[in-house]
Design brief:
By secondary structure, the protein is of the alpha+beta class. Among the domains are: 268 residues, GROEL, domain 1 (Orthogonal Bundle); 104 residues, 3-Layer(bba) Sandwich (GroEL), CATH 3.50.7. Helices cover 46% and strands 18% of the residues. It is built from 17 helices and 23 strands. The strands form eight sheets. Strands 10, 11, 12, 13, 14, 15 and 16 form a seven-stranded mixed beta sheet that branches. It has a three-stranded antiparallel beta sheet with strand order 5-18-21. Strand 11, helix 9 and strand 12 form a beta-alpha-beta unit. Helix 3 runs antiparallel to helix 4 and helix 5 packs antiparallel against helix 14. The longest helix has 25 residues. The radius of gyration is 30 Å and the shape is elongated. The protein starts with a helix and ends with a strand. It comes from Candidatus Iainarchaeum sp.
Length: 548
């Protein structure tokens, strides 16, 4: 009977792999560190780029953490959780993706040392939670305020976000970004709301980066539907139609019997009359430019051209909404209901050839609440990377305005939080103190990595930086990667939104806690690929198939 009780109880299907306890934690931490190390060297203005080649041979060159992790094929569940950190950071604040992933990886690396010292994961998690909460409080106390009218500071935020991601024309782009965000920002009872979707970014290869421009209106990636239509319309009255300028086909199967040529002619004449009436209704409203979300019949195009009315068709719904916001027009679903009050206004509508493609520019809108940024660049890879940099900068400026709080960059705010966290740890008893100190060490990984990418000695940099922050008025001291020394980052115009930093801590700490909680990996073989013995996934070390 005693022997029977010692038999192992098998409750999993044959072939299922199971890794438990310390081994499971070690594997997950190993994967998370590998993912963090993959993007760590891209941090900061002096960060290196990564080239990712997919199965089809398409190449992506970027130093944007979210883009790199999104393009990489990561199989292991722990690795996928790290990718989710970058995605969450990108969706919430648009910047600081690399920071969030590096923090998560380093938190797990430091937790591994505590686990080796027989400290229970629950105690580490409790300490990490206390530290994350305190770090965000410290950062909020050190933050300065910014207002929508402070365009000088907003420009510094845009520049800080783009430095290292785009070439020397970042200064020109920074002005475009600030103008774009301030144009679409809406203030209600002192609270600023910004919908980033109201800034449309169009990219076109060719021309120099400094030829990128902001359009006070919308760029439609379409051409005029008829060659006889005016290519340039001044003082445009714009009709926005969510209805086809075509004869509707019957919804059910219909059979029309025509027994004579006269009946056929009458049938054709009737169609022509209906289309003519549609065009007359548009003309009567006073419109001289038509934007149609659906199709425009060839005959209707002819009638519009004869009346001197320009038109574009099959325009995206998002562009229709943007045009309505920019021109103050209304999208109409019945042509007979179109009136002069429904029309939008723009100083100029013009078809221009950009990089071999015709595009229609609707510009000169008065106080538009939707604008467009046209990004140019010499090569396809450059334009793609500039577009990503512009998106990050737009989000950073928007975050700063929504939150109204900014901090100095260059690792200065992380070092400030690290120094204060160590002081806080002294007030906490028990083993949680060790976890809080590990969290403080983790925050120092940001200035340490910045120093490494700039070719500075990381250890000397951290020792000097720690000493500066312990002194009076040292909270803005950070790593200047260009001058390769410790400087006041506020004076160096390196400014970042507070929300980017706090979100990186939140995202990084949450995924670290989640991975630390896992003490059992069960991999079935019935569906898809199973894990080989030891719990290591297919794809070798790190469980990452880079697709190369």
């Amino acid at each position: 009977m005693a022997e029977a009780t010692q038999q192992p109880v098998v409750f999993l299907t044959e072939g299922t792999k199971r890794t438990r306890g310390r081994d499971a934690q070690r594997i997950n931490i190993l994967i998370a560190k590998a993912v963090a190390n993959a993007v760590k060297s891209t941090l900061g203005p002096k960060g290196m780029d990564k080239m990712i080649v997919d199965d089809l041979g398409d190449v992506t060159i970027s130093n944007d953490g979210a883009t790199i992790l999104d393009e990489m094929s990561i199989d292991h569940p722990a690795g996928k959780m790290m990718v989710e950190v970058a995605k969450t950071q990108d969706e919430e604040v648009g910047d600081g993706t690399t920071t969030a992933v590096v923090l998560a990886g380093t938190l797990l690396k430091n937790a591994e040392k505590l686990l080796d010292d027989e400290i229970h994961p629950s105690i580490i998690i409790k300490g990490y939670r206390q530290a994350a909460k305190k770090a965000k409080e410290i950062m909020a106390e050190a933050a300065d305020t910014v207002s929508p009218k402070d365009s000088k500071t907003l420009r510094k935020i845009a520049l800080t976000s783009m430095t290292g991601k785009v070439a020397e024309s970042a200064e020109d782009l920074a002005d475009l970004i600030v103008d774009a965000i301030t144009a679409v920002a809406e203030e209600d009872e002192g609270k600023v709301t910004i919908d980033i979707d109201n800034v449309k970014v169009e990219k076109k290869q060719g021309a120099a980066l400094n030829e990128s421009k902001l359009v006070q209106g919308i760029i439609i990636d379409k051409e005029m539907v008829h060659s006889g239509m005016p290519k340039k319309v001044k003082n445009a009255k714009i009709a926005l139609l969510d209805v086809a300028l075509e004869i509707k086909s019957p919804e059910t199967d219909a059979k029309i019997e025509i027994t004579s040529p006269d009946q056929l002619q009458a049938f054709v004449d009737q169609e022509e009359t209906m289309l003519r009436k549609m065009v007359e209704a548009i003309k009567k409203s006073g419109a001289n430019f038509v934007v149609c979300q659906k199709g425009i019949d060839d005959l209707a195009q002819h009638f519009l051209a004869k009346e001197g009315i320009s038109a574009v068709r099959r325009v995206k719904q998002s562009d229709m909404k943007a045009l309505a916001r920019a021109t103050k027009g209304k999208v109409v679903s019945r042509i007979n209901d179109l009136t002069a009050s429904d029309l939008g206004n723009a100083a100029l509508v013009e078809e221009r050839k950009i990089a071999g493609d015709e595009m229609v520019f609707v510009e000169g809108c008065k106080n538009p609440k939707s604008v467009s940024v046209l990004v140019r660049g010499g090569s396809e890879h450059l334009v793609d990377e500039v577009e990503r940099a512009v998106h990050d900068a737009l989000m950073s400026v928007a975050d700063a305005l929504k939150d109204g709080k900014i901090v100095s960059g260059g690792g200065s705010i992380e070092e400030e939080a690290s120094v204060k966290l160590r002081e806080f740890a002294q007030t906490i008893g028990g083993k949680e103190q060790l976890a809080i100190e590990a969290f403080a060490d983790t925050l120092e990984e940001i200035p340490r990595t910045l120093a490494e990418t700039a070719g500075m000695d990381p250890l000397d940099t951290i020792v000097n930086l720690r000493a500066k922050h312990k002194g009076k008025d040292g909270k803005h001291m950070g790593v200047d990667v260009f001058k390769q020394k410790i400087m006041n980052m506020k004076d160096a115009n390196v400014i970042e939104p507070l929300s980017v930093k706090t979100q990186a801590i939140t995202s990084g700490a949450e995924v670290a806690e989640m991975i630390l909680r896992i003490d059992d990996i069960i991999a079935g073989t019935s569906k898809g690929k199973g894990m080989p013995p030891g719990g290591m996934p297919p794809g070798g070390m790190g469980g990452m198939d880079m697709g190369m």
